């Protein structure tokens, strides 16, 4: 793989990571609810999920997923259902007089960060389209691993930056004081995204 090809991957993966969507909503939700460590956890597992999808795609296994219309549809509906579930949880948030923050755990942050990627087969399509432009049959395993690692580092790095920015002590306290309403706003966003995906599938 040439340097130009690698730079192409860096540029496109950066744009993809920074595009607003359900992943951003999930990382922000855990950052505002549980603070920097929870946001970092969601960001890191999201990056690992992207890296895994990239490796699967570049290894050719994602072709099997996209070639099976039934499997692809099941994954899409599962993704829509998971987004809806996260959104409904946010909409059902209630004020707690003894605690400003909804209860979150490292385990839930790790789960949500990874599952929001795993249940989105469009990521596989994205990587197939991207890697088909720069990877050929002669591409070595080391080069393929570099491509997958690049995607993982860019994605994880972007969301780590998001978690760091939104957990700044200067204004995190104000945001956390309104955590329940923020949770409900994120719930609306996630349910809306789930609904949009469901309409596209119907």
From TrEMBL:
The keyword Transmembrane applies. The chain crosses the membrane at residues 6-28, 40-65, 71-92, 113-135, 141-167, 179-199. It comes from the Bacteria. It is a multi-pass membrane protein. It is found in: Cell membrane. GO terms for cellular component: plasma membrane. One of its GO terms (molecular function) is amino acid transmembrane transporter activity. Keywords: Cell membrane, Membrane, Transmembrane, Transmembrane helix. This is Threonine/homoserine/homoserine lactone efflux protein. It comes from Reinekea marinisedimentorum.
């Amino acid at each position: 793989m040439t340097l130009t090809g690698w730079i192409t991957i860096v540029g496109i993966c950066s744009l993809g990571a920074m595009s607003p969507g359900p992943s951003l909503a999930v990382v922000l939700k855990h950052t505002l609810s549980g603070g920097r460590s929870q946001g970092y956890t969601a960001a890191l597992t999201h990056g690992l999920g992207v890296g895994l999808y990239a490796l699967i795609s570049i290894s050719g296994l994602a072709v099997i997923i996209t070639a099976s219309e039934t499997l692809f549809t099941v994954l899409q509906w599962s993704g829509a259902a998971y987004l809806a579930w996260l959104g409904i949880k946010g909409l059902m948030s209630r004020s707690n007089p003894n605690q400003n923050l909804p209860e979150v755990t490292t385990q839930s942050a790790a789960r949500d960060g990874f599952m929001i990627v795993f249940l989105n087969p469009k990521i596989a399509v994205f990587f197939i389209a991207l890697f088909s432009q720069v990877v050929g049959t002669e591409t070595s395993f080391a080069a393929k691993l570099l491509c997958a690692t690049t995607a993982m580092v860019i994605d994880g790095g972007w969301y780590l930056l998001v978690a760091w920015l939104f957990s700044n002590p200067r204004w995190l306290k104000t945001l956390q004081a309104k955590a329940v309403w923020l949770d409900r706003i994120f719930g609306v966003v996630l349910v809306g995204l789930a609904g949009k995906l469901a309409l596209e599938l119907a």
